[in-house]
């Protein structure tokens, strides 16, 4: 499948900023079943960009802007070609072993409710169990059309009825770890979630869980299905904060207003 | 030198100067209110609040404008930025942040002044208040002496630049408020209360003796104004403060090679002030003149921050 | 007492004994108070955690120095060098190839499940591949030549300012001791540290700009930060003084930006860079890790070092040293039961009143049970905690720590001590500073030497020569014991 992605992130500041430093995880990478056919990152102001990788192997771009600056638009666009792989991730850049993805983080700390929710999944086959968990998370919540709540933990999300895609993925990750399954958060692009929930366009978040013998398998609790060829993977981490497309720091007063414009178009065939 | 260090030194200078000024103001007001033949009461304390721009904050406390509550408010009350204890607190915080740049003597001056207020919740009666502010003044004098004995380098100059700019602001405010209060009163010019009031101004800037030296004709408002604005012999006059700012910026420029808008602004101001006749200022409106001066002083403060990249 | 340089250990120790005998207690006490008064004036203070008023205290100082004989020190140094080299090799490996896991020496979950292992910096190579530039290794002694490592400190070990200030005080107050003893100087520490810093600057930087990074003057160790910056003649910066642009670190000065090449940081990993570690933190330098990953700045010590000095890792240090050095550890560990292992847990639960139990991630003497001096209630509460979360605890035997003479209220009395020497690693090798911080438990019988728990410090004399080669071993031992009573 061919996914054409056009993603604009605009920050507006209510008063000019003296300096802006951002860590961007906005560059997808080739895997066995995903090839990046042209990718551009453009910033609408005088910025210095430096490219690197973080500890999880994600491609990063450091963005440095000297102020005064009152808005910035980060525009990424390009095409990603994907193959059908039943959610199994082959040939990714994996600097860290699956075991690491058993650890909890402040955003993915479980409580008794999440643990017992995971325990109710009555499947002995590891893959079937993860499918069932994915479906259970999918069915438990309604998808929120609004913006994700910044900093919302899995525990907080679990107590809500209506949550964002990011929350669903984090609940899945948290629950899977309570079952002893290494799991991680994935950020990227997919039209799938929009189709299901008619949600606002936003970078998508889903999950991957590690199954011995298969490797990392992608699950999207938004759809209740495996994340398949309609997904362009960009970054993985222990939680949504670690895989965030933009982590930023600014020097200056005032508020920051975020505006996202995203188009993910698919065409079948290659 | 780190920008933060320079900024802390500058603010240290400003807060020490502010401490000293509030102490003198309280001292002069106590004298005016209690010790003069005709106690000035509420008006004296109201003007002290106005000079420190704490009238609104004090009103919120709901207390009466009289010696005990106002003296307490201006000395030991740490809840607002216009008190001695808060100014000292800020001075000490800045000093701590640059502790290694200061001599032991300079640091202990600040620290001892700060310790005077340790666990102190009231300045006491008139005499006790005078003793308290006298103790504070002694420590700030000690600090000043210690700064003068430090190496002649940026460290000293940033402290002194802060002091000069704060001093210009303080003197201008003092004159503005007192003049405002004094003139509309309808008291006969040269009356006794009036005399006491004008003496208060001189006391606050330590200029009682200097006045006698410079003016032979007795206490006249026009002379007091002339002294405080135009006579650079008096260290706390606008003319002296303005001149000192120019000199220190010059020294900094020589040592650091940094020369810019702050120097230009300070020099312009100095040239203008040296041509200024206090008599003209009075006829054209002292209040307006002083308000303009205070605004310009603020602009110089900002220019210093930009020139030495304080933030 | 004889000429310095030609003395034997017998002479040296007798000399200390004679000095103690001939100097009246009142005089010793006067000198001690004088030293403490100086410390207070200088502001050599620390803040006690858990006290609401954040009161500043000085650490009590004991006037009686502790003595290390030259050959004793030589053996100790060799052990320290071996251990620190192993720590560096371990960090290099664990954030890179992870050979030690592949070969099954350590259980992988010990690393990957450990919050001290920082995945965020995995794959980054620090300049010159040095991770633990400044290590403080805490040692205890139970017999003449029986030193044990109690704890490794490979993150930001503190206390070196005490080593230097204590020596200053001793030189001023007891100059006669330095006439009788040939004591190795410690005052070169700042120079050695600066040399170490410069040696690990990114390759190609001719005149590296070095700074000390402090959390600020509210930090309990601020005195040490400013002391070190001052004595090295380099800037003491706070996070707000640094800015990263284009993956390069700059400091903000009145004359504009100055490029920074080496940072001795005295702030925790969590607060280094809000873009990488703690997004909620307003502290830190955004972009610092990117500059570090790009090889444009050296951080001393490297981020992620916590995995090497974690108490859970500690119990594996003998295996780690052996794995990387190829030889047996010259400095042994204190025997340690890992409560995460069921058999060890069983053993520990059966013997709680005899053991010392520690939280794996605790420090400063907090979260610790000293069985022999604990109440029944304390023991029972630890028992419950152990059963609930065994992986969080380790246990050790209560050591028969050595004591040294210390000036107590009633005169000289034996008190328990430990010792923290400082080891510097630069691109030109590893060096042990001849001295260190002796911490002393001032309460009679107490084994807890932490300053936050009523411990004090004393100077540590490393003698430059003691003719030990000519001395029969037995005699040396008995002499050592005469100074350090083994209880």
UniProtKB/TrEMBL annotation, chain A:
InterPro entries associated with the record: Bac_transglu_N, Papain-like_cys_pep_sf, Transglutaminase-like
Highest taxon, organism lineage: Bacteria
SUPFAM superfamilies noted in UniProt: Cysteine proteinases
Domain Transglutaminase-like: 157-223
Official protein name in the record: Transglutaminase family protein
A Pfam family hit: Bact_transglu_N
From TrEMBL, chain B:
Matching Pfam families: Alpha-E
Family annotation (InterPro entries): ATP-dep_Glu-Cys_Ligase-2, DUF403
Residue intervals of the DUF403 domain: 1-308
Listed name of the protein: Alpha-E domain-containing protein
Species this protein is from: Sphingomonas glacialis
